[in-house]
TrEMBL record:
Keywords: Cell membrane, G-protein coupled receptor, Membrane, Receptor, Transducer, Transmembrane, Transmembrane helix. This is Trace amine-associated receptor 13c-like. Signal peptide: none annotated. GO terms for molecular function: trace-amine receptor activity. It is found in: Cell membrane. It is a multi-pass membrane protein. Belongs to the G-protein coupled receptor 1 family. It comes from the Eukaryota. InterPro entries: GPCR_Rhodpsn, GPCR_Rhodpsn_7TM, TAAR. Residues 59-309 form the G-protein coupled receptors family 1 profile domain. SUPFAM superfamilies: Family A G protein-coupled receptor-like (SSF81321). The chain crosses the membrane at residues 39-67, 79-100, 106-136, 157-176, 207-229, 260-280, 292-316.
Length: 339
């Protein structure tokens, strides 16, 4: 019986036709070959990726509207969340292109291919940079709370975020310089969309956008965890009423650190499989079924962040309710007490 169900599932997800199909049949020998997949598998994958794309765009748009609209949310930490939401918002559109490439063919031309590769690297770099900034923000807030208001100002955060995005765009331009200069020569066949940056560039890219940032994030959050635990123990011993306000402030900072710690942990869990495959130089795995799951998990992280905010942040739930009920269009809604 077990063998029967195994054969049944295999037949469902295997291609029924063995004949070769081309991405562009009219081009004959110059066209790429479509991936040999069953209709059911392609349909299920299209549905899953489409749902991820719509949710990612919608949820991150809610975060962007919430933080930009309500004045109470114009804080330094929330501005970092806004920057992360912007990068995650654009990831939702990248997932849409993944849906269109399920059969392994690129139908949008060389120019769109170059733009897609450029945005993919730039947005990924910006997301990693935002995570590093969030980790630094929580490190200063927990480890040096007395100087946090003077060290981490809204102006400095804006400058840091601007530099993060500027570097990401510049970095993507440098990495894809040769690909952008000769668009049509990068594809081995019509219907292919892949950036050829070379093995050395791949190694450098993984060091800059993965190894160094992840090391910094882990080190900072380990330090934050140690200090937060010691502060919790200290707060439990301070029960005097005169110190109540100070304790409350520390609790809010620790709660924020815990929430953003979850965001960083989910970020690492979703991105590590992708970069580990890239570091192992086994790029052929990206063309297999497991590669599809790894890439989908990579993009799914951008959908999870707003869900984490909804679970941990009451202000996000309240802001979302006001957006859906169209209360944000009322006069003076931006001054609503959202916290």
């Amino acid at each position: 019986m077990a063998e029967y169900f195994k054969d049944l599932l295999t037949s469902m997800f295997s291609s029924e036709e063995a004949e070769v199909e081309l991405c562009f049949p009219e081009l004959l020998n110059s066209s790429c070959i479509k991936q040999n997949q069953s209709f059911l598998y392609s349909l299920l994958l299209s549905i899953v990726l489409s749902i991820i794309s719509v949710l990612t765009v919608t949820l991150n748009l809610l975060v962007i509207i919430s933080i930009t609209h309500f004045r109470q949310l114009h804080a330094s930490t929330n501005f970092l969340l806004l920057s992360l939401a912007v990068s995650d918002f654009f990831v939702g559109f990248l997932v849409f292109f993944q849906v269109m490439m399920i059969d392994g063919c690129w139908y949008f031309g060389d120019l769109m291919c170059a733009l897609y590769c450029f945005l993919d690297i730039a947005i990924t770099s910006a997301s990693v940079g935002n995570m590093v900034l969030i980790s630094v923000d929580r490190y200063v807030a927990i480890c040096d709370p007395l100087h946090y208001p003077t060290k981490v100002t809204l102006k400095r955060i804006r400058i840091s975020v601007s530099l993060c995005w500027t570097f990401s765009l510049f970095y993507s331009t440098v990495l894809l310089r040769s690909n952008l200069e000769q668009l049509s020569r990068n594809s081995s066949c019509a219907g292919d969309c892949a950036a050829d940056i070379g093995f050395i560039a791949i190694v450098v890219d993984n060091i800059i956008t993965f190894i160094i940032p992840i090391t910094v994030i882990i080190v900072l959050y380990l330090r934050v965890f140690v200090v937060a635990v010691s502060q919790v123990q200290a707060m439990r011993s301070h029960i005097a009423a005169a110190k109540h306000s100070k304790v409350t402030a520390k609790k809010s900072e620790i709660k924020a650190a815990r929430t953003l710690g979850v965001v960083v942990l989910v970020f690492l869990m979703c991105l590590c499989p992708y970069f580990c495959i890239s570091l192992s130089s086994q790029d052929t795995l990206f063309n297999t079924l497991s590669g599809v799951y790894v890439i989908s998990l990579f993009y799914f992280n951008s959908c999870l962040n707003p869900l984490i905010y909804a679970f941990f942040y009451p202000w996000f739930r309240k802001a979302t309710n006001m957006i859906f009920t169209l209360q944000v269009f009322k006069s003076g809604s931006s001054d609503t007490n959202i916290l």
